[in-house]
Amino acid sequence: MGVSLSPNPTPASARAEAPPRDVRLERAAWKPQGHPNLRRSLAVLVGIDIILAAFYLSWLLSPDRVGVLPLFALLILAELFNLTQAAGFWWTVLGARRYRPRAWDGLPPAVDVMIPVYGEPVDVVEPTVAAARRMHGAEVHVHLLDDGDDPEMRELAARQRIDYVTRPRHTGAKAGNINHALPLTDAPYVLVLDCDHVPEPHFLTATLGHLQDDDVAFVQTPQYYANLGQGPIPAAAWAQQALFFGPIARGKDARGAMFCAGTNVVFSRRALEAAGGFPENSLTEDFALSIHLHELGWRSRYVPEVLAKGLGPEDMASYVSQQQRWARGCLGGILTALRARLPVRTRLQYLLASMYFLSGWTVLLYMSFPIIRIFTGAQPLAGASADQFLLHFAPYFCCCLLTVALAGSGAYTWRGFALAAASFWIHIRASVLAMLRRRGRFVVTPKSGTDAPQPTSVWPALVMLGALIGTVAFGLARQRTPSALNNVSFAALHVTVLAAGVWPALVGTAAGAVLRSPRARRSLRRQRLLTG
Asked: Which helix (H) or strand (E) holds 144?
């Protein structure tokens, strides 16, 4: 073990070195509060959603709609699952409340800032370390937790005058790394930062006040991708993050069920000790820890303000790696949430978050129905009903999408939607592994991408895309009946969505990248992290 525990409170001179904030990009991409009348508009839209859902389902569930019974049953299951997710979304976002800041009362407390690293580049880690030292509002002690035993990290710690911590046994991945450092430190509060998330100087000023309530375990803040302008993948990944850390997270906070997201989060040490530290047997240790803390009676809070700027996945392989870990970990949390002794609304919020990663099955079903119909003639709906399907389904579907777009205040984009749909196979793979009780292993999301095409990273989506294109061509050549054209149209719609989702993997991110050379990209990432 290598550890230096000399105190490193933030010097006054370092506080003055904070880089100027460029909030233009942040304001354009992040609207956590939304329009003052947003909640009223959402309530009206949700009311319309409910009416259209009732109109569609009352038509769909009529006995004379049944075509091939097994396919009809699968369609009903898919629609009920999606309606459950939609209703959960409506319930969550309508509960979102306007954030009220809370300042710390009394003398600034001590805070241990823990930055776990494992093989990341120094030029990614150093901006985070330097910015952590500049934070004010507390007596800050920064600890670099190096699980890679990297001499360059030791030099970085010495250069920045922070503590450098290693351990003899590298077990439990990130959770084990933090658990090892906890007994070596003693501040009453612990801030966890991923090594690529650069905190703002006022991070602790904006968060610590909420921890003055004795029953608050942690305060979570958004994960903001400062490299969202560097290509189609980080832009799409940020669109998905913005929806969660905007209306969904604010709604979960109001429902008492905001969970830890693993970085940009401040803990009460008492809460961590009561929980026995981070669970080391989960791929999403933050999610599992949150369930345990809420089960023990602790509360959580959410501050909807960008207080740290990080790096999103820059290429398709990095995105897939990230999503596979999240999906596998959250699906594994379904049974944990079901068994936990939690209030009903808290349990439902955790289940909604976990079960989102089952939605890939419904996407697969919807894409498969037109293929089955065109090549075999079998379809879930009776012939005449299939011709009327679009009339009843389209208003409900489009209004639900409009509700999501409005709730996201414009941050949730077509690109984010298409990438999520094209990731259907990740959910399927993760759920199969969960059923087989295959835990998988913790993989750090790469901090730099490649401009080269990566078709192999999305080959299941490409197989489905090819099948759908073949279906469209075969269907148009074979017959032009209303029912056949209806299915061809749905296949073509799926082709459009899938193609938009996998396109960056086929052409490489160079088409949307700002700079191309690795050195130039690293320089830009560093600038983005420092200035937002």
From this structure: strand 139-146
Q: Residue 18's pLDDT is what?
A: 39
CA 364, CA 476: separation in Å to the nearest integer?
A: 22
Q: What is the mean pLDDT of residues 199-204?
A: 96
Separation between Cα atoms, residue 472 and residue 486, nearest integer Å: 11
Buried b (16+ CB within 10 A) or exposed e, 458-483: beebbebbebbbebbeebeeeeeeeb
Give the pLDDT confidence of 327-370 residue by residue, as tens digits: 988 898 888 889 889 999 999 999 999 999 999 999 999 999 99
CA distances from 28 to 7, 96, 221, 228, 494 (A): 39, 21, 18, 11, 30
Residues 248, 252, 256, CA angle at the centre, nearest 5°? 175
Round to whole Å and give the CA distance between 429 and 313. Answer: 20
How many residues make up the chain in this entry? 532
What's the rounded Cα separation, in Å, for the pair 85 and 359? 9
Percent with pLDDT over 70 in the chain: 86
φ, ψ at 266 (rounded to 5°): -110, 130
What torsion, rounded to 10 degrees, do the Cα atoms 233, 236, 238, 241 define? -120
- Identify whether the C-beta of residue 372 lies closer than 8 Å to the C-beta of residue 62: no
Quote the tokens at residue 437.
């009780």
- Are 48 and 400 a contacting pair, CB within 8 Å? no
Structure-block tokens of residue 38: 């947003």
CA distance 52 to 281: 43
Q: How far is CA 460 from CA 236, 320, 416, 422, 455, in A?
A: 20, 12, 19, 9, 10
Residue 155 CA to residue 457 CA, distance in Å, equals 36
The least confident of 16-20, 357-361, 479-483 is 16-20
**233 to 31, 186, 261, 315: CA distances (angstroms):** 21, 40, 20, 6
* Cβ contacts of 64-69, under 8 Å, gap ≥ 24: 64/382, 64/385, 65/381, 65/382, 65/385, 66/381, 66/382, 67/378, 67/379, 67/380, 67/381, 67/382, 67/383, 67/385, 67/386, 68/378, 68/379, 68/380
The pLDDT tens digits for 288-314 are 999 999 999 999 999 999 999 998 998
What are the residues whose beta carbons fall under 8 Å from the beta carbon of 249, sequence distance 6 or more? 220, 222, 258, 302, 304
